């Protein structure tokens, strides 16, 4: 998927005033995007923000293209082990600071917990088992640049770097071997630096707001295990309604596309399981989300935000067999001072 047209749309929208509103209001509950969107807002000079997100993704069943496959159909393709389910939890700690009015610096530190249920075909029947991985993921550092601002709209660009802090050497016991090297989805990072470009357009009106964002995640080289992870492009758009000074709700759609890996880990056998095949990592997806933002406008909790968002897949076209998403959820807290 290419995003040249998306960036052209962002630039065009920035030149069109929104429905009448006196000034941009950063104190509305919808002045931040839904909690599943990151890098959506900037701060005034000297401001800080700390935050925490719990991001959950559940996958179940395998898909090839737009078709769902049974475990038996996957085994018929010659794989010894079939992934059945996966649960991924990410604890995301965030820090933002604005040294100037036009630049906000954002640092995100993820801690991940993954579990995958698999089924192995054995001579006397199938064996089900679960593997686990946990630890620090890839830390990101991003600059958010405010490039255009009107009374009720903003256009900002972002340039960031993903650091290779997440482990790619993850192991667990399986029926085939003790302390076995785990396949690609269970790894905690890319193993290489990654460029993180993006652009966001926001507009406010009386009682509602709208946003659109395009971002990328582009690994820059092959890691020490001789492979480069997926290059990812993402676009999302949302609309929010403000009900009170402390409550807003939102609807959001998100599209993403990711490439297959380049190269492969020589310690993985791609015939053992589809999750070990670097040519089965790509695909395109469209997801739909509903969210709630809560803001304390005054009192002892002034500046605190709490938000949740829940999402379901609308379209999935995967280079499979590959585990498919079934639902996603994010809950978070933010505090600005």
What is this entry, summarized?
It contains 2 helices and 17 strands. The chain is mainly β.
Strands, helices and their partners?
Layout (H helix, E strand, L loop, with lengths): L3 H11 L33 E18 L1 E3 L1 H5 L5 E17 L5 E20 L2 E12 L3 E10 L3 E10 L8 E2 L7 E2 L12 E12 L2 E12 L7 E2 L3 E13 L2 E12 L3 E2 L19 E13 L8 E33 L1
Antiparallel strand pairs: 1-2, 1-3, 1-17, 3-4, 4-5, 4-6, 6-7, 7-10, 8-9, 10-11, 11-13, 12-15, 13-14, 14-16, 16-17
Number of strands: 17
Strand order of the largest sheet: 1-3-4-6-7-10-11-13-14-16-17
Residue stretches low in confidence (pLDDT < 50, at least 5 long) are 1-22
Distance between the termini: 39 Å
Helix content: under 10%
Count of runs of 4 or more consecutive helical residues? 2
Task: Find the structural class using helix and strand composition.
Answer: mainly beta
Quaternary state of the chains: single chain
Shape, per Cα inertia axes: elongated
Element pattern in H and E: HEEHEEEEEEEEEEEEEEE
Largest sheet: 11 strands, antiparallel, barrel
**Compute the gyration radius: what is it?**
21 Å
Name the average pLDDT. Answer: 92
Beta-strand content estimate:
over 45%
């Amino acid at each position: 998927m290419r995003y040249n047209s998306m960036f052209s749309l962002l630039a065009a929208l920035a030149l069109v005033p929104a429905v009448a509103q006196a000034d941009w209001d950063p104190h509305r509950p919808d002045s931040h995007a839904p909690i599943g969107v990151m890098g959506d807002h900037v701060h005034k000079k000297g401001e800080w923000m700390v935050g925490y997100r719990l991001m959950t993704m559940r996958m179940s069943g395998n898909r090839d293209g737009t078709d769902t496959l049974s475990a038996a159909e996957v085994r018929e393709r010659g794989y010894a082990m079939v992934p059945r389910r996966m649960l991924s939890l990410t604890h995301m700690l965030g820090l933002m600071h604005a040294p100037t009015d036009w630049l906000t610096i954002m640092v995100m530190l993820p801690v991940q917990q993954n579990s995958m249920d698999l089924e192995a075909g054995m001579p006397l029947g199938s064996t089900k088992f679960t593997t686990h991985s946990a630890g620090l993921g890839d830390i990101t550092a991003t600059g958010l640049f405010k490039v255009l601002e009107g009374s009720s709209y903003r256009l900002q660009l972002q340039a960031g770097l993903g650091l290779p802090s997440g482990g790619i050497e993850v192991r667990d016991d399986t029926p085939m071997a003790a302390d076995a090297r785990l396949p690609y989805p269970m790894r905690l990072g890319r193993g290489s630096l990654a460029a993180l470009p993006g652009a966001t357009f926001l507009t406010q009106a009386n009682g509602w707001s709208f946003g659109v964002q395009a971002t990328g995640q582009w690994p820059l080289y092959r890691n020490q295990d001789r492979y480069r992870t997926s290059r990812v492009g993402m676009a999302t758009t949302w609309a929010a309604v403000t009900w009170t000074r402390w409550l807003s709700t939102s609807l959001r759609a998100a599209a993403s596309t990711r490439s297959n890996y380049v190269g492969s880990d020589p310690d993985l056998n791609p015939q053992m399981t589809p999750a070990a095949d670097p040519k089965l990592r790509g695909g395109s997806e469209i997801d739909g989300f509903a969210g709630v933002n809560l803001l304390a406008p005054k009192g002892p909790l002034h500046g605190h935000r709490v938000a949740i968002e829940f999402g379901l897949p609308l379209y999935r076209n995967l280079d499979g067999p590959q585990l498919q998403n079934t639902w996603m959820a994010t809950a978070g807290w933010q505090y600005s001072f």
